[in-house]
Amino acid sequence: MKKIRAVLWLLVILSVIVSFWNIVPRYRVETGNRNVDIVLDDASFRDYCRLIGKDEKETLAVLKKSGVTTLSVQEDRLKELQDSGKVVCWTGAQLNGIDGFKDNTGLLSNIDISPGKTYVMVLNPDTDSQLKKYLPVTLAPGCYKELLDYRNNDFGLWELEAPDYFINETGVGFDPARIRLAKESGLCLILRPENRDNLDAEKTKAFIDAMCSDAVPSCIVFGGMKNEALGFPGGMDQLIKSIGEHKLVIGDLEVSNKSLEQRGVSMITRKMPGSVIRLISFSPLYLSKLHPEVVMDKYMLAVTDRNIRLLYFRPFLQCIDNEPIEKVNADFLEGLSSGLKNAGFSIGGAKPFSDFGPPLWMLTLVVLGISAGFALYLNEFIPDDKPGILVLCALALPAAFGLLYATGHVNGAVKVFALISGIIFSSLGLVVFRKKLLSFKDEKFLNLTGQGILILLGVTAITLTAAVHVTALLSSTGSMIAAEGLRGVKLLLVMPALLVIIAYAVKGFPEPVSFAQVMKLPVSLWHVLLVLFGALAALMVLIRSGNVSTEYRLGGEDKIRALLDKILIARPRFKEFLLGNPALILLPIAAARKRFATAWALVILGVIGQADIVDTFAHLHTPLVWSVLRTFNGVWIGIVIGVIAGAVYWKLTQERK
After folding, report:
1. Which of 495, 465, 484 is nearest to 415 (CA)?
2. ∠ at Cα 642 (640, 647), nearest 5°?
3. Distance between CA atoms of 386 and 430, rounded to whole angstroms?
4. Vertex 20, ends 19 and 24: CA angle to 5°?
5. 87-130 pLDDT, tens per residue?
6. Would you say the C-alpha torsion 45, 48, 49, 54 has a positive or negative sign?
């Protein structure tokens, strides 16, 4: 049996070594993509210019000098064109109700005005060109007609047959003047088309061709009331094809709530991740509640911690700290640019991450290592005289992987095995060190604390096997832009604790009191309160796992997070440095002094902290270096807190002996 266990550990070590075949390319891709674009929202920019009373070109030059690299132009709606005086819209009934309208205009005298249709009078050449290009790809044939050509008359006139909401919600293309402004100012261009439910494959292609006829934008960011990609759902296949034909780049907006994801964009990120750049944007209402320094910190964290390369900027429209609006925005942009440069990034030229992914031979060897870890856990329950059972257990998972691969479920199999690795190896360390914990005696504080530190380091080393596996199995271009990732994070936090409890309950810990005997101990009121507190804490751990909204955070927690980010660069996770890691340092003291109930609680806290390490690396859109540094910070800070807590616990238990 010893030889079999040795072979199993060798397979685990081999799986860690071969994992770097895909980890190294990921590191190179992450460190090689350091360009960030600061994107100016055109609609907010126009409001800003009106507010300060300055010329747009002059103001844009100032903002460009401060750090803006790109202008984002949103698709116009008819209502917006009318509000800006570029068109005038009437219903047929309104026109017929104007006495003498036809006679006064002259040109309309021979035109029949239908009460149920919409009439659009075009008042400038750019808008005329815009409608000629985009109305045919927006409306069905027969639903639009050019009654008067602007080029031959004082104005142009279109007759539209469309629902009432068309005027307010449907886009009618991009203003050529805004595109020229970006070009003449030396800025990159982002276009923001609206979704149209009525676009089939043919019209989706026609729209993209029309959009790219003047200039291929550096990026496209889909927007609009529908919050989906252009042509979703019917035209998605053609949209993806057109993106490839025009070599377009898509901006994927980061959202905190999954329900707000743009489903069409999600399809694009899964099918062609090498054409996607992550983008962060804050709404005007949200910005109005934040100080510029807070916004800057959020932008910096997005770039350094979440692989975001497009920072969507809306100018601040109010005085802050008694500073003029223009100075507020100039200082913000200059500070943001300087911060990015100091962090090793360049301003301008953002591009997607290069395509890469794990090869099949590496996946196979990693699966063998995960299977070996599974067998090592089961070894705790298998008698030494039955090695055949252990061998069969070691072969079960590779057989399952082979079956999934043969049936074409490779991606699903990879995610399942990544989760299995996280569950197995974050619990295996505490199972392996169980016998060590039984040998502790009530000796000197420094000896027990030193043993606790060694246990923490040993258990963490085994847990990092899962971190390496998860990184190797799931690292790809899609995972780096959050299109792919580890599913079952909440399961990852629950199952390791359950596996450890089972192992310790069956094998006995701490001796001579087993889990069953602990359950028979007298129960006091403080025990009940402790259990309730533990249940509440466990619930909070589950709710707060993954990327959660701020509503689940404690008061002042955001300030603590920001402070830790500034001091430590990569903030460690609370479940590690405050709970799990200190618990493992206290564990030898509790075991030596036979504080059995406390020892059980510390074991559970310890395994939760270990599972959280795997969860750290499961955030695949976080740069690898940050995950490593975050875990390192969690270990050494956990040691400091654990030693201090250990001293207090040593003193309290010594007085009660």
Report:
1. 484
2. 100
3. 24
4. 140
5. 988 887 777 766 555 555 555 656 777 887 888 889 999 999 99
6. negative
Residue 148: strand pairing partners: 157
Cα 134 off chain centre by? 34
Cβ neighbours for 309, distance < 8 A, ≥ 6 positions apart: 33, 35, 36, 37, 277, 278, 279, 303, 350, 351
Question: Which of 381, 398, 382 lies closest to 504, judged by CA?
Answer: 381
In sequence order, what are the residues at sequence separation of 6 or more whose Cβ sits closer than 8 angstroms to the Cβ of residue 106? Answer: none
Residues contacting 538, CB < 8 A, separation 6+ = none
* CA geometry: angle 329, 332, 333, nearest 5 deg: 90
Q: Greatest CA separation found in the chain? A: 107
Could you tell me the sign of the dihedral formed by the alpha carbons of 258, 263, 269, 275, in that order? negative
Q: Which residue has the tokens 């729209």?
A: 207
Nearest one of 345, 352, 349 to 304, comparing CA atoms: 345
Which of 428, 541, 559, 547 lies closest to 485 in space, CA to CA? 547
User: Going edge to edge, which strands form the sheet with 144-148?
Assistant: 87-91, 118-122, 156-160, 144-148
> Which token pair is 643?
């030693």
Average pLDDT rounded to a whole number, residues 604-621 = 89
Show the tokens assigned to 213: 């006829």
The CA distances from residue 239 to 169, 216, 247, 341, 477, in Å, are: 21, 15, 12, 36, 20
Six-digit token pair at 112? 């029949």
Gap between the Cα atoms of 526 and 652, Å rounded: 17
- Per-residue pLDDT of 439-498, as tens digits, reads 777 678 888 888 889 999 999 999 999 999 999 998 888 887 876 666 667 788 888 988
Q: Whole-angstrom Cα distance, residue 226 to residue 197?
A: 9
Q: Which two tokens stand for residue 540?
A: 């909070």
DSSP state of 355: P
- Residues 311 and 303: beta-carbon distance below 8 Å: yes
In whole angstroms, give the CA distance from residue 16 to residue 2.
21
- Give the pLDDT of residue 311: 96
- In a 13 Å sphere around the CA of 184, the CA atoms on its Cβ side amount to 10
Residue-level length of the chain:
657
Q: Are 223 and 186 in contact (CB under 8 A)?
A: no
- pLDDT of the residue at 470: 93
